[in-house]
Amino acid sequence: MQAEVEADEVHKSYGETVALNGVSLSVEDGEVFALVGPNGAGKTTLVRCLTGTARPTSGEARLLGVPPEETDKTTISVLPQEFSPPERLTPEELVEYYASLYPAEATRDTEAVIYEMGLTPSRDKRYADLSGGQKSRLKVAVSLVNDPDVLFLDEPTTGIDPEGREDVWRVVERLADEGTTVFLTTHYMREVERLADRVALLSQGRLVEVGETEEVVRKHAGEPRLVVRTVGSADEALETLDTSGALGDGTAGVTTEDDGALVFEGVAVDRIGDALGSLAEAGVEYDEVRWREPGLEEAYLRLTGKTVETSGTSGTEETKTGTEVQE
Ligand code: ADP
After folding, report:
1. What is the DSSP string of 16-69?
2. How many other CB atoms are there within 10 angstroms of residue 54's CB atom?
3. What is the distance, to the nearest Å, from the Cα of residue 68 to the centroid of all Cα atoms in its chain?
4. Atom 6 (ligand 1): residue with closest C-alpha?
5. Of the residues 1, 27, 78, 208, which has the fewest C-beta atoms closer than 10 A?
């Protein structure tokens, strides 16, 4: 299979700021590939290097087999994070306008694009009057007018409401089913877990892991945990459990948290009943039970010592206020 998007040891610096520090990756035809990292990690810079709007300081990017500047622009599409259409235009006008920028033979039927994005009922409303979800779908619609083989979506759901996010996810799922290669950047882990075949975790301009999403979670996220809030002291409850022998093979995988909760490490979902049964047998009372299967956020945290979502939900402006450097 041909790699459609490739980075080979891509470095990019803006003056003193090292935005990318040797990134190599390769995205195959038809994949949904997610690039994940908090604000400032270098996601947009990598998209710009891969699509030819920024040049790597060193290393090489290739898009559809050639340097991005040489790629036939009718075959790719980029939805940049900051894309903000004119407020007074309607979906119909916007889709038609963007379609007119391509040769007629390279564009899709604009009616069909509007229909597929669920925008037919709002086709004559001004952009300013659309709901968040409609605005997001319209932006994606605009990026589809040339029926791209490769679509870059840079944080397509940042700052939009849950309904809008769900809308965009459904669109991406459909594109994936139809075989479009999608390169998605995001700091929403649920977005990755839902959409991506493979994920690359980016931290401070370096990739710390690349792999199938489920595999990355399995390898790095750790074991599922059952947290049981005890009515009395959790330390005493642990002792009671130990002396009662209710757990059979001892309490090696059980710890306490702030003396208020027992934590059972490595409890798969079908073993929750066993763990709670042992508490009943030992006569330990509890009033709350939480079970959580760790996901991509835990994997990122374990690999980098940092979270993606909490450090990525605010401060967009703050992290981008470094000196702007001319390309
Ligand atoms: P992300 O998309 O993950 O938020 P960016 O690629 O936007 O990350 O930024 C990576 C780093 O490069 C940040 O430290 C940012 O401030 C810096 N940076 C990005 N673009 C520029 C630019 N044009 N001039 C100067 N610094 C920049």
Report:
1. TEEEEEEEEEEEETT-EEEEE--TTSSHHHHHHHHHTSS--SEEEEEETTB-GG
2. 21
3. 24
4. 42
5. 1
pLDDT at 1 (0 to 100)? 60
- In residues, how long is the chain? 327
pLDDT digits (tens, 9 = 90+) for 220-261: 998 888 999 999 999 999 999 988 888 777 777 899 988 899
Task: Return the top range by mean pLDDT from 208-212, 239-243, 307-311, 315-319.
Answer: 208-212
Distance from Cα 19 to the centre of ligand 1, integer Å: 6
In this predicted structure, the answer to whether residue 309 has a pLDDT above a threshold of 80 is: no
Pocket test for ligand 1, best of 35, 187, 320 (most atoms within 8 A of CB): 320
**How far is the centre of ligand 1, averaged over its atoms, from the C-alpha of 176 (Å)?**
29
CATH fold of 220-326 reads Alpha-Beta Plaits (3.30.70)
Q: Is the CB of 325 under 6 A from ligand 1?
A: yes
Per-domain residue ranges of the chain: 5-215, 220-326
CATH for the stretch 5-215: 3.40.50.300
Task: Read off the tokens for 262.
Answer: 């027992």
| Residue-level pLDDT at 315 | 33
Q: Does ligand 1 have an atom closer than 6 angstroms to the CB of 97?
A: no
**pLDDT single digits (tens) 97-112:** 999 999 988 899 999 9
Gap between the Cα atoms of 218 and 211, Å rounded: 11
Instruction: Determine the pLDDT at residue 142.
Output: 94
* The ligand 1 atom nearest the CA atom of 312: 4
